[in-house]
Amino acid sequence: MTGIAKLLEPHVQPVSLLTLYLLVVLLIAVVWGTALAVVTSVLSVAVYVTLFVDPAFALPIADTQTAVALGVFLITAVVVGTLASRLQRAAQTAERLTEEQSALRRVATLVAKAGPPSAVFQAVTSEVGKLYDADLARMERYETDGTVTGVAAFSRVPVHLAVGQRFALDGLSVAREVRETGRPVRLETFRGAEGAIAREARGLGIRSSVGCPILVAGRVWGVIAASTKSDQPFPPNTETRLASFTELVATAIGNAESRAELRASRARIVATADRTRRRIERDLHDGAQQRLVSLALQVRAVQALVPRELGEAAQELENIASGLSAALDELRETARGIHPAILAEGGLVPALKALARRSPYPVQLTVRANGRLPEPIEIGAYYVVAEALTNAAKHARASSVTVVVEARDDALHVAVEDDGDGGADFTAGTGLTGIRDRVEALGGRVSLHSPPADGTRLEADLPFAQQTTSAAG
Q1: How far apart, in Å, are the Cα atoms of 76 and each of 41, 42, 382?
Q2: Which residues touch 138 (CB under 8 Å, ≥6 apart)?
Q3: What is the pTM of this model?
Q4: What is the CATH number for 124?
Q5: C-alpha to C-alpha distance for 295 and 298, rounded to whole angstroms
Q6: What secondary structure does DSSP assign to 195-223, as a single string?
Q7: Which of 67, 194, 242, 412 could be bridged to 212 by S-S, CB 3.0 to 4.6 A?
Q8: Is 254 among the domain residues?
Q9: Chosen domain end from 241, 276, 296
């Protein structure tokens, strides 16, 4: 800057050269702050007086110009530096808020898509760790026995208390403080503290931590904590701002619990309906069917005693016996439709074979499942196949059907495909709607591919784990 001023000295008034130094002060105030700008102001005035003030007038002019210039420069440095500092802080705050809002939107989108809670846990923990530049962030769930279980983690350092591990709250930790107070917590140091979490923090070089409770239905479900190795603690109110993320976690947990309760409720309804079907079938078999069989036998016995000359009476008895046999057959078919006894007694394989034999068209049946399956799975698979075969006969005018039932690692897969007219639809008011409700009530998935004039393929997956969980509950 002094070189430029020397070049301009022959063409401008010396006092105008101060403007160049003032520009330097402004630039330094904006970029490096007030303190360095003040130092630059003093140096600029000193250089100006030394190099550009005529020695003949040095004393009177220098005193006046130096004082004025120095005052202007110092005021400019302080004002501009202060304003620049405020603007920088405002810009940093705005940037941080923008990043925070973006992170919240990403998590909210995942929650809205009804993602599994474990995915939401990990997403929130990672977002918190990155957003606040933490060395370690962890989400933990409180257990009824006073311990906590890690459910998600973000780390730039190697950790020992891993996800899925349960540990006691026997020393200083954010988790313990949050559980005791139910409020956001900030810990400035772990020096001299005991407990597994505190020991890990010291071993990792963690200096401070913040945490916020996760409240679900008014209870403290868990905690999310962030930790740093830096000498600089987290910005003020960081632990409070974490509440925006914990609210999304609580929403995801609440939604998952509601969905689980809904599935359990639907499963109970289906199970109750199946028990009612079995009871009706049993009552029909043990009551009305047995009564009809007995009456038919009595009629046959009486018919054998009728003399030949009473041929008209004998014919009437024959008609009655035939009517009883027909009614008995119809009652057996009705009972089989309500709930097939062969399914309860022999299991899925013989029940499906019986369905295939009664079909009016060829059925290629393949079953890959060993032994008995959970009862809800067997009943669900049976009715999927039964409904598909019924639709193929009544609506699709199919000439053949292929049925594949396969037990996989986590579910029973059922696929029924026909060569009929196609055009089947879950919303058409057929029994397919009931099949979809039954499968979804068991925690499964059902799909239908039925283009017009190109056959129909119905597939269902019935998870074993869902039935195990329901039984355990």
Answers
A1: 9, 12, 86
A2: 125, 150, 152, 153, 154, 159, 161, 224, 225
A3: 0.55
A4: 3.30.450.40
A5: 5
A6: SHHHHHHHHHT--EEEEEEEEETTEEEEE
A7: 242
A8: no
A9: 241
